[in-house]
Write a structure and sequence with these properties.
about 130 residues; alpha+beta; two-stranded antiparallel ribbon; 4 helices; globular
């Protein structure tokens, strides 16, 4: 469900930062970058704005390891990979399977609207 969102300078800086990266950062990672430009910004402000942007459907919130949410500026359907060794979250370079949702609907009475697929294992960097 999309929630209307007002403009703020801090929110725009946070969104711009997220759009410039492909590492699916945590709020802490975004905070470390943003405070270089806005020194008086708080971690709570970054968390609040990331959550508002996610609730509005402007960015995606990724539930990866049950501990820390990661964020993604790409909201079109795609799959992710979580490295069990270093914790990196990366995009999978493959097309989503729309039939996945249709197949899941056949096996449940749920009203399934979307799917989030997270593959896990060891990334290319850690496996070397």
């Amino acid at each position: 469900m999309s929630v209307p969102i007002k403009y703020s300078h801090q929110r725009e800086a946070i969104l711009s930062n997220l759009k410039s990266r492909y590492d699916h950062p945590t709020a802490e990672m975004v905070y470390q970058d943003i405070r270089q430009k806005i020194p008086n910004i708080s971690l709570a402000t970054v968390y609040r704005n990331l959550n508002q942007l996610a609730d509005a459907g402007i960015i995606a919130r990724l539930y990866c390891n049950g501990k820390t949410d990661h964020f993604d500026a790409t909201t079109t359907p795609h799959y992710h990979f979580l490295c069990k060794c270093c914790g990196a979250v990366k995009d999978m370079e493959m097309q989503p399977f729309p039939a996945l949702i249709e197949a899941a609907k056949k096996y449940s009475a749920f009203s399934i609207e979307e799917a989030s697929v997270l593959f896990s294992g060891i990334c290319d960097v850690c496996s070397q």
